[in-house]
Amino acid sequence: MILLTGASICASITGIAWTSWIADLIPKGVRGRFFSRRNMSAQVVGMLAAVLAGQFIDQWQARFDTDQLRSYGFMILFAIGIAFGLAGIFLFRKIKEPTLAAPEDTSFFKQLREPFLDKNFRMFMVFSIAWGFSTGIVGPFFSVYMINTLQIPFSLITLFGVAAGLSSILGFKVWGALIDKIGAKPLSIICGIGGSFVPFLWIFATPENYLVIWASNVLSGLFFAGIGLASTGLMMNLATGKNSSVYFAVFAAVTGLFGALAPIAGGVFGDFFRGKVLYDGIIQLSDIRLLFLTSTTLRLLSLVLIRFIATPETISVSQLFASISQYQKFLPLYQLQNVASTGMSHVENMTASMSRGVIAVEQQIDTFLARGGDLGKALIFKARALDRKIDAGIGRHEAFLERLIDKILRIFSGRK
User: Fold this and answer.
1) I need a labelling partner for 67 at 20 to 30 A (CA). Which of 94, 123, 153, 363 fits?
2) CA distance readout (Å), 119 to 71, 116, 231, 233, 308
3) How do residues 175-210 score in pLDDT, each as one tens digit?
4) Cα distance between the two ends of the chain
5) What's the helix, strand, coil split of the chain in %, to 5?
């Protein structure tokens, strides 16, 4: 507990320093694209590292019977993590520091009050607290619901996480290009609405049919990637001036405090809803499903607070749809977005757009059916070739792990 507490304190200090530093280092106009590429790369590397680490632990523990020898596998992974951390610190030294303004000669407590006196930043903190609370009250109960109620095996739960990770990679790419065009505030609204309905989908999951959880995880990864980018962008845009690091520190402290209270409140809500039935029809709204519904409602209500945050990049609804349409031209009905910007006087354009979309879809289907035979043969050939490559790759990977473990054992035993 002491080590974990110390690690958390150090992580909080470095996190605040890193946020302040990166806000000065990255120009405002390209932050969205920067963070999207950074987070996307980190997500890919993190997923690959987790898979490789899991396979290494499985291989290591399969070779040994005692707990002491098995624990060495985790020690090796910790040592590798420390080595990469030290390498990261070394690489940080290669980055040139941006020119900083001279700090203001004011007392610490005066600087501490500044974020609370800033109406815009104060409203952003209120929104972040409300959003964090609405997500935190239900967050710890998703896994419990999957294991205890839905009886989902752990292997499938892991695949749900992989699906969320893959969709977040797509989200970082899409939202990163969009945020620099429409701004962080509109993106918060778009992704906030989508993320609000994630717990609502869980209401329809049953032990006999929980396919909806796949959709929930995909949507969660997609929209929460945008929420993370938008929140970071809003915070950096609002915390301007010479004391931006104080803004970041206050934000982390306040939101962290209420974030810690959210799971406790979720437990209180769960006890209150236990045994209560709000609706009993096609589905039954009772117990923890009422908590899912409460989380969805609170998330939607918290989005109302965004309108009170004044940002310079706010755009009109027509501009918003015009920007979004640039990333949806692969859909045959993308013209519908343009209708929203022309007003009710041009509603008749919607029918024409739908007609063109239907014709385009029919043409695509005809083309696909015409090429179906050749495509099927090509897919079978490619699938068999890919299967052979995967088998060969797995064989080489297992052989590499065997050699690595043998070398490590020789080091521990003192043999050459």
Assistant:
1) 153
2) 52, 7, 17, 18, 10
3) 887 887 888 899 999 999 999 999 999 999 988 888
4) 39
5) 80, 0, 20
